[in-house]
Amino acid sequence: MNPVPGGLDLESELFQNLPMSQIPLARRSPIPPENCNLARTIEIIGDRWTLLILRAALYGVRRFDDFQAELRCPRTVLSGRLKTLVDAGLLTKKTYKVPGKRARPEYVLSAMGLSLRPILVGLTQWGDVWLGQGEQPPISFTKLGSKTAIRAAFVDPEGREVRPDQIRAVLRG
Fold first, then answer.
1. What is the mean pLDDT of residues 47-58?
2. Which of 75, 98, 128, 160: disulfide with 137, CB 3.0–4.6 Å?
């Protein structure tokens, strides 16, 4: 047995078979933040401006002035967040030049940044349900080439949907 401070025995059969919605009270998380990939992710993308930049980039905004005009973010904050996203590998910085103007950078989602699409769609759909006040959502998502609505979901390796109440956390190591 490997008890975690706070009294929760994460290796017990009881804990391993509980759905996440029934996890018992603990005084600490089972993984220290410095070893947790969720905590590392939050460090990079977990503030308002960064998420809004990623949202705008997902919809095709790429140029500094366009980000600034849409978000009305202070220029110094925007510059810092874009640098962080480039340094983290979520955006790539490319140069473009409008005839008669100087070369300027644009910020394009990298493969790493594009892989956040399901998370951002999931957050959008969560907001539609919980914050939309019963109104028609301003945007919906469909399968490319059809009008079939899609939604973010968990799926197992065979492609079958897994409901949130069927998910459990399993500690490794």
1. 98
2. 128
